[in-house]
Amino acid sequence: MRRLALVLAGGLVAAGCNPDDVVHHIGWFATMRHQRSIQPYARPLPPVVGTVPVTGAEIVVDLHTADRLVNPRTRTSQSINRGRFVYETYCLVCHGVAGRGDGPIASAAGGPFFGVRSLVNDTIARRSDGYLYGVVVNGVLMGRGLMPLYGDRVRGDDRWDLVNYVRTLQAEARLARGAR
User: Fold this and answer.
1) How confident is the model at residue 151 (pLDDT cuts 50, 70, 90)?
2) Distance CA 85, CA 44 (A)
3) Taking the alpha carbons of 152, 113, 105, 133 in that order, is the dihedral positive or negative?
4) Alpha carbon distance 68, 26 (integer Å)
5) Is 15 left (phi over 0), alpha (psi -120 to 50) or beta?
């Protein structure tokens, strides 16, 4: 009887313990609650040399090849809305709401980063869709040395949707200039 009482008391104590309180003191013992995982903005391991992803090989874009790229995405409201979401997620902080280069961290708005280009000026508006796509993928290869690499964050059709949204911002800026 005494043995049964000890077993029951031990069982109640064990059931009342939080395993995380015990386990975190033992480094080699891991639980499924606390495991290594890839965090947002973390770079996963690069693919093995010679392998091709199931989505096909990544297009190599630089200043010489960018103008040959053709935008496969039609400027539909769905594409523009998706592009707006991507723009607000990654681009707005530098380029601003209207794309004028006056985002919260740009020097035009009192932030620490200088040289953030306006996306709605005539020089950028004359560039091809492929050029804008290339800047999104790898700004350094496109001659934009201060532009961070976003090719690992913005993928697939989102890149072209972002280009379509930037074209919409440019059209709105042209209308605003014409209305003056």
Assistant:
1) confident
2) 24
3) negative
4) 57
5) alpha
Tokens of 71: 């935008």
Q: Which class for 126: exposed (0-12), middle (13-18), buried (19 or more C-beta within 10 A)?
A: exposed
Tokens of 49: 């040399």
How is residue 122 written in tokens?
């005539």
Contact assessment for residue 141 and residue 134, using Cβ atoms and an 8 Å cutoff: yes
- Among all chains, which residue has been given the structure tokens 């043995």? 3
Contacts of residue 47, Cβ cutoff 8 Å, sequence gap at least 6? 53
Percent of residues, the chain, with pLDDT higher than 70: 78
> Average per-residue pLDDT in the chain?
81
Give the per-residue pLDDT at 128: 92
